[in-house]
From TrEMBL:
InterPro entries, alphabetized: Acyl_CoA_acyltransferase, GNAT_acetyltra_YdfB-like, GNAT_dom
Keywords: Transferase
GO molecular function: acyltransferase activity, transferring groups other than amino-acyl groups
Superkingdom of origin organism: Bacteria
Domain N-acetyltransferase: start-end pairs: 157-288
Pfam families recorded: GNAT_acetyltran (PF12746)
Protein name as annotated: GNAT family N-acetyltransferase
Organism: Adonisia turfae CCMR0082
PROSITE patterns associated with the record: GNAT
Length: 288
């Protein structure tokens, strides 16, 4: 899975400049066709997005009321759209035809510190941001993988799929990153998604699950507590989840920042192959 959604190693060391409205294109009168979408319109937008590995998270959150969204144009024929995931508001996702339309929308999005765009316009958007803010940006690819074959299960004595009966076990887990993905609550994840866990001494120490679902795809997420890494726990859990996803007829998707070597190596070990890339435009840290 995209690393919530970007590689946190980059952001953790940075004091980030957070953008507020009207800083990029101050003074521009926005057209009436720039719209913030209601929950109903968000669901319509989800249906208008192409179903692909790149849109799984946005589609999932739009359909479940777990995002904010803006468009330029109409829902059925937008020139640009930005989706801001509720659980990760600092990292909005864009779908654009025209960079000017994208920038107009971006003016209305609060508290972001990076944005994911098609790689063809990343440098152009970065130049606009640098010019308007006198603030440098950097770039990182977001890499999407899909299986090159049927993924077999990798057995491990500590790893099994969780069910609704395991909700108390999942709920008592202190680290929210073990509760994989973009779900309103643990019940939704256990009911509508798929999650497997490594359980040691009645504690969940690693998980993999469907972080997001669309009609044809399932975004896979993994997390392991630091003390239990490099023991094959996440690999075994992910293999179980991916296998189950393929049984449902959906295509598993694995996404990771291009600098997240460990995640990419795990994807390849499971049998995933690179499918596509988009690009993060990241506001560089402000030196103290």
């Amino acid at each position: 899975m995209r690393d919530s959604v970007i590689n946190r190693e980059i952001l953790a060391t940075a004091q980030l400049h957070v953008i507020q409205p009207c800083q990029i294109m101050a003074g521009i009168q926005l057209a009436e066709i720039l719209m913030w979408l209601s929950t109903v319109d968000q669901k319509s937008l989800a249906h208008c997005l192409p179903d692909s590995p790149q849109t799984v998270i946005s589609s999932h959150c739009l359909r479940r009321g777990l995002a904010k969204a803006w468009i330029k144009g109409s829902v059925s024929s937008f020139a640009a759209a930005i989706v801001q995931i509720e659980s990760c508001p600092s990292e909005p996702i864009s779908f654009e035809q025209d960079i000017e339309d994208l920038v107009q929308i971006l003016e209305n999005v609060q508290n972001w510190d990076c944005i994911i765009v098609d790689y063809e316009i990343a440098k152009q958007l970065g130049s606009v941001i640098e010019s308007a803010l006198a603030h440098s940006v950097s770039y990182m690819d977001d890499v999407y993988f899909v299986p090159g074959r049927r993924i077999p299960k990798i057995g491990h004595a500590c790893v099994r799929e969780l069910t609704l009966k395991d909700m108390p076990l999942l709920e008592k887990t202190a680290n929210d990153e073990l509760k994989i993905g973009c779900w309103r609550d643990s019940c939704s994840l256990l009911t509508d998604g798929i999650i497997a866990a490594a359980i040691v001494d009645q504690q969940i120490v690693a998980t993999s699950g469907t972080a997001a679902l669309s009609d044809g795809y399932a975004e896979i997420g993994v997390y392991t507590q630091p003390a239990y890494r490099r023991q094959g726990l996440a690999l075994a859990a992910a293999s179980l989840v991916v296998n189950r996803v393929q049984e449902t007829g959906r295509v598993p998707v694995w996404s990771a920042g291009s600098t997240n070597v460990a995640s990419i190596e795990m994807a390849k070990k499971l049998g995933f192959k690179e499918y596509a890339r988009r690009t993060y435009v990241i506001l560089d840290r402000i030196e103290a």
